[in-house]
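Same chain as my last thread, 133 residues:
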Amino acid sequence: MEMRKVLAVVLLLAVVLSAVGCKSGGATVTLREVDTGRTVELKRGDQLILELEGNPTTGFQWQVQDMDAGILKQQGDAEFKSDQQGAMGGGGLFVLTFAATGTGSTPLRLIYHQTWDKETPPAKTFEVTVSVQ
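reply #2:
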């Protein structure tokens, strides 16, 4: 009977320790527009979050223009967080999330534009160099 208790405690301890050891991902680095032009160093498994100002009600969107998908992978679509509490039509932040999945260096370039207007230059650009080890 005592041996069963010991085994139960050991099993419970193993489950708890494996759950603690399964902490997902690595570090998270958050950049804003003021960081354009920087070089960012990440490790595989790290997450890169971009918080870029904009207003989707104007038809403008942030869109990835250049990156090596073997090094960075965008995680879902851009999300929009409004500056306005409950108000429609205001500005805020577009939040884009990327995972560092490979090693190497890549530019990460985004443009802020109306996607249907191919002739007008982007209203804004954002570019960093991402180095993943």
